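BUG: 3D viewer hangs when loading the predicted structure for this chain

Environment: internal workstation, default settings.
Expected: structure renders.
Actual: progress bar stalls at 90%.

Input used:
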Amino acid sequence: MAFDIHQSLFDPHGELDDDARVAYQDALIEQFHASPEGQAHFQENDTPGSWTNVFLTYAVTHGGVTPAKMTVADLDEVLLNIFPRQVSTTPDSAPEIVAELQALWYFLGREYALPQAPEILESLGDGAAESLAQELGNPKNFGPAKSMMMLGAERGFDMTSEAGIRSWMQTYNAELAQGRGIPIPLRGERTAAAKKAHAKMRRNMAKASRKKNRKK
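Structure tokens produced before the viewer hung:
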């Protein structure tokens, strides 16, 4: 059966069919990787392509849209609002994320002639990576879960493993009990402790970014 990029992933009651979503994304990502645009991008950048899956997932689960119906406003919502709140990554990832999404939309524009593709590609042009980096590096955008993950990573814990997360949680809770830790701030919180935590996270992320850039 030919892939239908315009298919609905929602049932008659407006509920997302997650099995349909996974099948849709798997099929589209497979096509993207096999396309000239995908092959050129991944050979040049040597990245696994996970950003495409994350982007498509948040677009439909939080924004309610697939690429077929996506607008520039939808793109901005996912990239500049949802990503900074939900995705535990540093500002250094911004150019990589934007470059992969550019390749994806070149593919979508050519293969499926989506009429919004040129406008979306223009939005992903000059300044897009810088804007995303600013939002990814702003702790005020972080929800509690992301704040916890980012702070654990800054402290040197492996937040990609269950053992690392568990170890960080034990350390964090012990420090709070001893009065040495700072409670993770809620997004937008303005208490003195929250402001202190935000400032510290911003300094640490800027320091890590400078170190990474010096190594390149």
